[in-house]
């Protein structure tokens, strides 16, 4: 019989600019042995998300950086392989921040049991998990779209943006998506129900956005920044709301962009148009908002009112390149690494 070993990815170096495969290292070792009160978990699915780029750097942020030589953290769905813990049984599926490794020892802290009847356990990492909650909280609690208003969201086929657009439609608003390429834009309209989706790579993107928002923009869900934000700002209506959950266009920046200082323009718009520009970190809101989210989103997903495309990457060893490609906009939907067969 083939001996089972633990495979893990560790952070080998801190990237300058775009991450590279050599910033990671694949390691293998003996399988951890569980003791009293512990579980041995086998990772089935690992979530890859844009925020991970910030954790690779040691600049001050809302979360501590990943340690060099250590396994990066990351949400995962795992199966309980061995249990010496009264609350968990072998075969249970659990959700936890167990990171980039094939097997993990746990004392049960921070783990959530998943319903064994869940047809797609990986959805606990996407529309039923952190990305879905990010879309839900940012749009409904900060954006507060009203029927007939116009909601614009970039990265419209990504894990967060795709849910934002569908929720906007559920609330009776117009959903204008922005994505990279004709295929993604077509999917946003035909599969996700967006009213319009625009390709941000088009040379006349700003003009297309103006034509698609004749009544202006009431909610702009910000997760990209860059040229998309430049095109959106002049279209914002008085009293527009701008929830900010990310700025993926700038995650690899090593300094200020070589462009005019737009801060006076932005602050002038905030003042004149009485804009609400509010950043949020979703981990701050689990205690008081996650239960309501689970109830609402679970119902919408079960009824087919909200859906999400999953982009599976096969094998833990492919996680580094998959994260690099995610940050470059090469993936389509929620990126999930299938570490072991479910």
TrEMBL record:
Pfam families: ADH_N_2, ADH_zinc_N. Residues 17-337 form the Enoyl reductase (ER) domain. CDD domains: PGDH (cd05288). It comes from the Bacteria. Signal peptide: none annotated. One of its GO terms (molecular function) is oxidoreductase activity, acting on the CH-CH group of donors, NAD or NADP as acceptor. SUPFAM superfamilies: GroES-like, NAD(P)-binding Rossmann-fold domains. The keyword Cytoplasm does not apply. Keywords: Glycosidase, Hydrolase, Oxidoreductase. One of its GO terms (biological process) is carbohydrate metabolic process. PANTHER family: PROSTAGLANDIN REDUCTASE, PROSTAGLANDIN REDUCTASE 1. Belongs to the glycosyl hydrolase 3 family. This is Enoyl reductase (ER) domain-containing protein.
């Amino acid at each position: 019989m083939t001996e089972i070993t633990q495979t893990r990815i560790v952070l080998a170096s801190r990237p300058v600019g775009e991450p590279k495969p050599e910033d990671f290292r694949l390691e293998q070792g003996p399988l951890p042995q569980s003791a009293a009160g512990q579980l041995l978990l086998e990772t089935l699915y690992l979530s890859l998300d844009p925020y991970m780029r910030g954790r690779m750097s040691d600049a001050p942020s809302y979360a501590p950086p990943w340690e060099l030589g250590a396994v990066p953290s990351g949400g995962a769905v795992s199966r309980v392989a061995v249990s010496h813990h009264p609350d968990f049984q072998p075969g249970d599926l659990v959700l936890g921040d167990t990171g980039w490794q094939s097997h993990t020892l746990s004392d049960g802290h921070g783990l959530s049991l998943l319903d064994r009847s869940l047809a797609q356990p990986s959805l606990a990492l996407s529309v039923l998990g952190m990305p879905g909650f990010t879309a839900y909280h940012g749009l409904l609690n900060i954006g507060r779209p009203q029927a007939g208003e116009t909601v614009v969201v970039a990265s419209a086929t990504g894990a967060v943006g795709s849910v934002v657009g569908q929720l906007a439609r559920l609330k009776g608003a117009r959903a204008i998506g922005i994505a990279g390429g004709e295929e993604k834009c077509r999917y946003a309209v035909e599969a996700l129900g967006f009213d319009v989706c625009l390709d941000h790579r088009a040379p006349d993107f700003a003009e297309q956005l103006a034509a698609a928002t004749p009544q202006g923009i009431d909610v702009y869900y910000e997760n990209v920044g860059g040229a998309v934000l430049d095109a959106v700002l002049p279209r914002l209506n008085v009293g527009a709301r701008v929830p900010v959950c990310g700025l993926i266009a700038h995650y690899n920046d090593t300094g200020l962009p070589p462009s005019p200082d737009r801060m006076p323009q932005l602050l002038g718009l905030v003042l004149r148009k009485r804009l609400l520009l509010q950043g949020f970190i979703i981990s701050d809101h689990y205690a008081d908002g996650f239960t309501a989210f689970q109830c609402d989103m679970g119902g919408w997903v079960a009824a087919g009112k909200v859906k999400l495309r999953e982009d599976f990457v096969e094998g833990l060893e492919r996680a580094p390149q998959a994260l690099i490609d995610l940050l470059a906009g090469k993936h389509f939907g929620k990126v999930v690494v299938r570490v072991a067969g479910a």
